[in-house]
Write a structure and sequence with these properties.
With about 250 residues, the protein is α/β, with parallel strands linked by helices. Helix content is about 45%, strand content about 15%. An 8-stranded mixed β-sheet has the order 3-4-2-5-1-6-7-8, sandwiched between helices.
Length: about 250
């Protein structure tokens, strides 16, 4: 089993869209568990119409570890959901409460959860929030590989630099020998915008990481609205090729 975490310390870069698309692509050949570790719960809302137990219930011992695991309509894809904040309210969000009050006491819990499913799934994909708190560190500690997701703008480029620095610091402090970064996703690239291309080219020139360029594509929003994967919606050919390339990259 391989554990992949998608992240960046900036919201709105499309981590959730890429997480869901990657999970669905990997599920074509493997059994996949997507864990929604973002209190916003967008990945869960994109795949499920109803949510029973959620990730936080397992973390707070309200149910068995596998209690929240839910089959999606995508073949071979399951999810440990988080109820969207819109339906719960920020103050009632169980995952927010867990992050604030408990996460510092359980540094290895996400790694333990991943190991719990080692014999059941080929891949675990973590969708994360833009934070870099103890909870996110706990998630990344469980990961074999971390895939940063950024957009073609200067704020995302700065966010990538900060994220890479924080990952290196976290690995040093936590003595984490896993959580390697091999691939960076440059999302929502619009080839007709000179700034997009300039930023994309600058990132591509940086050595050390494989770069996956995902074009701007309304299929992502359409997929969320219809609670389907972009593979089912009919995305652009180069979008689907980019997601296939990302899946091949994380398969190693």
């Amino acid at each position: 089993m391989k554990v992949i975490g998608l992240g960046l310390q900036k919201g709105g870069v499309g981590k959730t869209s890429i997480s869901v698309a990657l999970a669905a692509e990997l599920a074509k050949k493997s059994k996949v568990l997507l864990i929604d570790a973002d209190p916003q719960g967008n990945a869960s809302g994109a795949l499920l119409k109803e949510i029973g137990y959620e990730l936080a219930d397992a973390l707070l011992n309200n149910c068995a570890v596998d209690g929240p695991v839910t089959k999606t309509d995508v073949p071979n894809l399951w999810i440990m959901p988080t109820k969207p904040i819109e339906s719960e309210g920020k103050e009632k969000s169980k995952l927010r409460i867990y992050k604030k009050n408990v996460a510092t006491e359980e540094p290895f819990v996400m790694d333990d959860i991943a190991k719990e499913f080692a014999s059941d799934f080929d891949f675990i994909i973590f969708d994360t929030s833009p934070d870099f708190s103890t909870f996110e560190e706990n998630v990344f500690f469980a990961c074999d590989e971390i895939v940063p997701v950024m957009k073609c703008d200067t704020f995302s480029a700065d966010g990538l630099t900060i994220f890479l620095e924080n990952i290196n610091d976290f690995k040093r402090r936590r003595r984490c020998e896993k959580a390697s970064i091999k691939t960076v996703v440059i999302n929502e690239h619009n080839a007709s915008f000179a700034l997009d291309t300039n930023i994309k080219d600058a990132i591509v020139k940086q050595s050390g990481y494989k770069k996956i360029i995902v074009p701007q594509d309304q299929a992502f929003k359409k997929a969320q609205a219809y609670q389907k994967s972009i593979q089912e919606i009919g995305a652009k050919k180069n979008t689907l090729e980019a997601i296939q390339n990302l899946a091949d990259a994380v398969r190693g």
